[in-house]
Amino acid sequence: MAAAKTPGHGPLTGVRVVELAGIGPGPFAAMLLADLGADVVRVDRPGGTGLAVNPDFDVTNRNKRSVIVDLKSPDGAARVLGLAERADILIEGYRPGVAERLGIGPEACHARNPRLVYGRMTGWGQEGPLAHRAGHDIAYIALTGTLGMIGRPDEPPAVPANLLGDYAGGSLYLVVGVLAALHHARATGTGQIVDAAIVDGTAHLSAMIHGMLAAGGWQDRRAANLLDGGCPYYGTYETADGRYMAVGALEQQFYEEFLDLLGIEDQAAARKDWTRWGELREAVAARFKSRTRDEWTAVFEGSDACVAPVLSLGEAPHHPHLAARGTFTDHGGITQPAPAPRFSETPAGVRTGPAQPGADTADVARDWDVPDLMKGPQ
Fold first, then answer.
1. pTM metric for this prediction
2. Which entry of 110, 136, 319, 331 is annotated as an active-site residue?
3. Alpha-carbon dihedral 373, 180, 36, 112, rounded to 10 degrees
């Protein structure tokens, strides 16, 4: 049964977005726009996409509506162009040239809607030697130098799930890009193409590190620097119960409070003496191993020592601070992160659960005045 159109909430209320179904960063970017109030219509393909999550649990499709269009059918492109004609933003994540071959590339869309912002989400970008190659997050961040920064020096680089490339370097840059282009389109009446490449965004994330590298304040190897685990008072330590505490006591006053609560005040002079960092690390590690994670959490409770327990995904929603803020929310039986960031005048929220493929075709055809949507599979 099709979901009823939900009332507008969030600062993007009134903005219409077409999302051509894909996996990873495109759907997440469209979810963020939907969370902020945009009317996002996801164009699903018959049979779904590869690597897709069960639609009932795919949180990245929350706050959206779905229609099904077979882009390989004779009228498939025309139906998508009908949506694009009435949209403010379109998001696609195909390899370069695929949208054009399907008849729904930027030129075809802009012929129908010159104000459209056409967002392209890829790993390698629209041009360059690797543009037409397959890839995933881990390969993109590997080439940018960011993957090589993460982990212990005597072990392979640590894999940061697909958060750093797909979502930070990809989705978030796509969202910034399409919103900036939307601002320009509304001011000038002219849409444009936004080329959001994960390699570009992930490289951009490391801007401060490159500045420090140029200044001689960063060594180009793992766990040898202030913020990459090389510093003994900025890292993680195992506790007596096999769990972990995270330490970020960088500034002098925080460092002193950290040592005091940890019970190793005699290590005060080691903060700036890197020749003593090995000794300091051993002392910190030994102390943390003497108590459980929850015991150490109690010790540092209410302090400015910048120490926190490392929580699991299941534990995080129950932390008192996150619970008080409502950082996580429950909707339709699924615990999930609440929309972010927050707005004083136009609050966002989870309005509907994951869109079911094709369930909203009739509503979208009516609301967007695209009757041709009803001609294909429902």
1. 0.95
2. 136
3. -10
